[in-house]
Amino acid sequence: MKALDIFILFAYLIGTVLFGAWFSRRQRKDVKDYFVSGTSVPWWAIMASVVSTETSSLTFVSVPGLAFTGNFTFLQLVLGYMIGRIAVTLIFVPLYFRGELMTVYQLLGQRFGTSVRRLASTLFLITRSVADGFRLYLTGLVLAAVILALPGSEQAAQNLFPALNPTLTIIMVSVLVMGIATIIFSYLGGIDAVIWTDVTQLGIYLIGAFVAAFILLSKIPGGFGEVVAVGSAAGKFTMFDFVWNVTKSNTFWSGLIGGAFLTTATHGTDQLMVQRYLCGDAPNAARKALLVSGVVVFAQFALFLLIGVMLYVFYNNYASGEMSAFLVDGALRADRVFPHFIVNHLPSGIVGLVIAAIAAAAFTSSLNSQAATTMADFYMPMTRNKKSDEHYMLASKLFTSLWGAVQITAGMLAALYLSRSMVDQVLDIQSFTNGVILGIFFLGTFTKRVQSKAAIVGIIVGAAVMLYVKFRTPISWQWYVLIGSVVTFAVGVIVSYVTREEASVGQLEQYRER
Questions:
Q1: 340, exposed or middle or buried, with CB in 10 Å at 0-12, 13-18, 19+?
Q2: Do the beta carbons of residue 231 and residue 317 sit within 8 Å?
Q3: Which residues of the chain have pLDDT under 70?
Q4: Contact present, 298 and 74 (Cβ < 8 Å)
Q5: Could you tell me the pTM of the whole model?
Q6: Which of 483, 484, 495 is nearest to 456 (CA)?
Q7: In this predicted structure, what is the pLDDT of residue 42?
Q8: Is the Cβ–Cβ distance between 53 and 198 less than 8 Å?
């Protein structure tokens, strides 16, 4: 990377922190404004934030690799995403706006009581800390690569911590820097800063992708016609795979069914997403944001897959000498193809902008969502809402810092003890909790008799089954949420009949009135 690219990268990161500071001047002194922006965010900004939140830096570098080595069958999963969004708008969105909510788990408290609400909140807090801590580590690798390109960086790292490998030291410093920047940004700006930074990041993200695609296409003799001809001959544009095999990912059935359940869980019952809908002023804003985001996500993934096909044509037919850069121990690493092209074939300045957008994915922060969950589901009920607005605002910011420290710790531990492949496996832990929590919401929405004891047993059994499925079976991760939700729901219903316990009429009415 040239000096201009490095300058752009660090200017973008510093500017993002200052952006959060600017938003701190706009806030009212209450937690509702800090966590749900006073319900004043337009639907299109919520839509962009949803898209940015579900599109990580790993997506940017890995999805083109799917088409480079495979084809377009990944889009079957995205079709499932769109069906899941429709389910969320029909089942859950009406519940969000009947009353004032700060977290989605408050609905579970209305239906099942405090114990289930706090158990679901705890699952969210733990798994989000682990997953986003490891993502912080993976994003820190991008910053570390830039630092390693600076002259004398390895020697400085050796002098700083002589007992550690210099590269490891730089990675850990990068995780710390990214983590502290994320804490400052989230601490100062609240959900407003998170959403509007998501909007900015998505724009830069897509501009970078389009510029890279345009430059890549210009390097292929014959242009788009050549891409279509070579890609078609190699089967790159194949989109549907109707084989029935639960151990295989990206089939029509795992994509459509598994993807629908996955999105119903992530976009309907996960505080990270639901908090964004609550920033709108009405259910229609949330519905519009959610449905349009599905179209944008489909178009975005189609673009990244098309870039993967163009990379296949370019490197196999016109730049085969560079293919050795993608080999690790003789095996092809498809996730290295697009980053290699960005660094080696994009003009200076554009490289810095694209890498800045990738690195800034860490700023799609869950810290505000974790602080909101801690406040609304634990701290405010414990203090019986009797403290002042100033007290709760200070506590909210302190919890933001606390969860930031937890994520930094997780990122540091990942740098010290885990390989990247192991990190990818650990990130699947979200699939365990997504399915279980979706099952609990289904129990609350579609049953009358189930109450807290049966729901808790459902959560425990559902989580245990998912651990077995993950570590003892070859079933594709795309079925995890379906399995987890069905097991949790079924066990909850069965236990309610065995124990002969029924939810009170008051609980049901209160939940459904919401």
A1: middle
A2: no
A3: 1, 24-29, 38-39, 57-58, 99-100, 149, 328-329, 359-365, 418-430, 501-514
A4: no
A5: 0.87
A6: 495
A7: 92
A8: yes
Nearest CA among 179, 183, 175, 184 for reference residue 412: 175
Could you give the residue ranges of the DSSP H alpha helices within 219-364?
223-233, 252-253, 259-268, 271-277, 283-317, 337-345, 350-359
For residue 377, what is the DSSP state?
A: I
Please tell me the distance from the alpha carbon of residue 291 to that of residue 313, in angstroms, as a whole number.
34
Q: Give the number of other Cβ atoms within 10 Å of residue 229's Cβ.
A: 12
Structural Rg of the chain based on CA atoms: 23
Q: In the CATH scheme, what is the code of domain 36-126+194-406?
A: 1.20.1730.10
Whether 301 contacts 228, CB under 8 Å: no
SS3 at position 332: strand
Quick one: pLDDT at residue 399? Answer: 95
**Closest to 313 measured CA to CA, from 207, 219, 210, 212:** 219
* CA angle, residues 83, 86, 88, in degrees to nearest 5: 115
Q: Rounded to an integer, what distance in angstroms lies between the CA atom of residue 371 and that of residue 275?
A: 11
Q: Distance between CA 387 and CA 408 in Å, rounded?
A: 30
What is each CA distance from 254 to 78, 262, 295, 470, 477, in whole angstroms? 11, 10, 20, 16, 9
What is the end-to-end Cα distance of the chain in Å, rounded?
54
DSSP 29: S
Location of structure tokens 């390693």: 148
- Per DSSP, helices labelled H in 37-104 are 43-54, 57-69, 75-91, 93-96
Domain with CATH 1.20.1730.10 in the chain: 36-126+194-406
DSSP class of residue 256 equals I
DSSP codes, 169-186: HHHHHHHHHHHHHHHHHH
Are the C-beta atoms of 204 and 357 separated by less than 8 Å?
yes
